[in-house]
Amino acid sequence: MVTAEQIRSRQEKIAIVGLGYVGLPLAVAFARRCAVIGFDIDQHKVEQLRQGHDRTGEVTSAQLRENPLQFTTRAEDLAQARFIVVTVPTPIDINKNPDLAPVRSATISVGKALCPGSIVVYESTVYPGVTEDICVPLLEQYSGLKCGADFTVGYSPERINPGDKVHTVDKIVKVVSGQDAATLDAVAGVYELIIQAGVHRASSIQVAEAAKVIENTQRDLNIALMNELSIIFGKLGIPTRDVLAAAGTKWNFLPFTPGLVGGHCIGVDPYYLTHKAEEIGYNPQVILAGRRINDGMGKYVAENTVKKLIRAGKTVKGSRVLVLGLTFKENVPDIRNTRVIDVVRELREYEVEVLVNDPVADAVETRHEYGLELTTLEAAGPVDALVWAVAHRDYQALSLAELKALCGNGNGQAVLIDVKGCVAPAAAEAAGFVYWSL
Predict the structure, then answer these.
(1) CA 197, 25, 6, 179 torsion-angle sign
(2) DSSP 3-state of 357
(3) Do 378 and 351 contact (CB within 8 A), yes or no?
């Protein structure tokens, strides 16, 4: 079995399978200490990385230059490595069931190149049992090797926070696991080469898988509570954020806020856990209730936009609304599973003309994923309302006067829908906006 010392001394290589928001920062971190192969099926992405450009913005050109990796799209090159880490995405399908196709595909590629003495570690978020019950049989089938005798597996859940330059991969405690004690020691030793914050040894692979999936489930439920409170307080005419500010003065009050819950983790991972729960005959209630609330927030924002348009003296049908921000998170170009799209689609149901601006989203990817054409602020023309959906720094640099200048279409007041609560309500109203926030 490959050892951490062999990796450290560069006698053996590490391969990272999947070079996205999780895999690339991990590959760069390992490249500071080890020989690393970075594999991805996206030829264009790999060419960009070879040229020193990371489209996700997680890794700088300098970091790519200083920590050279062997980038490849050839799955057979994985045979050069004895420690292989799988970091491919785990989305959900249209019915909100786990879509394990990327994990299965990556596992088949790894299996075809797998050599005796290797360790395969999965970082992709899955429900308990996927590594051993689904991935191991595929590795055995396509390699002709026997797990436990010829190779072993581990699981170490990713904890990457896109856009976060403080809590980087090396500064976050890493949960590690292995199918046996020797594998656990090896996996822990390899990650300890780069993780300054240290590692936590989980008692089993399934424990590590479960730990990952509940991290985001917990966050999802807390945000769902804030969203439900926001709906209640909205009906009572009480400013939600004032309530949270007051309650937050207690030492043990958790600082969650209402909002659109998208992205590839919080809005997805709970469905992996509920799928497994239903598979074993348990009908989860609290988790799915939180999901229903959060999945309905785009519609709620759109409905309140329509109400404010009416209050401002606007005709809803044919009104022009500019949505500021499409990505699932501020200052990050990732548009996967963004719930801003729910706002856009719901407004269009009211026959509103919706324009979308985002300074960091990729226009080609946006067109392919959602059929949307991004517009510039200059080209948008005068609009009736702004839906400030994502708190990009570019938008936060705009004054209320500059925001107001984007409006001015037709009669009535301008409307500002401040989803993230970036503007003081009194200041917005003083600037002449009809204002609303969660």
Answers:
(1) positive
(2) strand
(3) no
Report field, pTM of the whole predicted structure over 0.90: yes
pLDDT tens readout for residues 182-227? 999 999 999 999 999 999 999 999 999 999 999 999 999 999 999 9
Beta strands in 123-232 (DSSP E): 151-155, 174-178, 199-201
- Angle among Cα 420, 222, 301 to the nearest 5 degrees reads 35
How do residues 230-288 score in pLDDT, each as one tens digit?
999 999 999 999 999 999 999 999 999 999 998 888 889 999 999 999 999 999 999 99
pLDDT value at 11 more than 90 = yes
Task: Read off the pLDDT of residues 67-109 as tens digits, 9 standing for 90 and up.
Answer: 889 999 999 999 999 999 999 999 999 899 999 999 999 999 9
Radius of gyration for the alpha carbons in the chain, expressed in angstroms and rounded: 24
Active site residues: 265
Closest CA to 294 of 21, 97, 96: 96
What 3-state DSSP class applies to 310? Answer: helix
Contact 274, 380 (CB under 8 A): no
Q: What b/e string do you get for 212-246 counting C-beta neighbours within 10 Å, with b at 16 or more?
A: bbbbbbebbbbbbebbbbbbebbeeeeebbeebee
Q: In what order do the strands lie in the sheet with 174-178?
A: 70-72, 36-39, 13-17, 81-86, 118-122, 151-155, 174-178, 199-201
Contact predicate 37/81, CB 8 Å: yes
Which strand (E) or helix (H) includes residue 349? helix 340-349
Q: Where are the alpha helices (DSSP H) in 237-323?
A: 240-247, 269-279, 286-295, 297-311
For residues 196 and 205, give the distance between their C-alpha atoms in angstroms, rounded to a whole number. Answer: 22
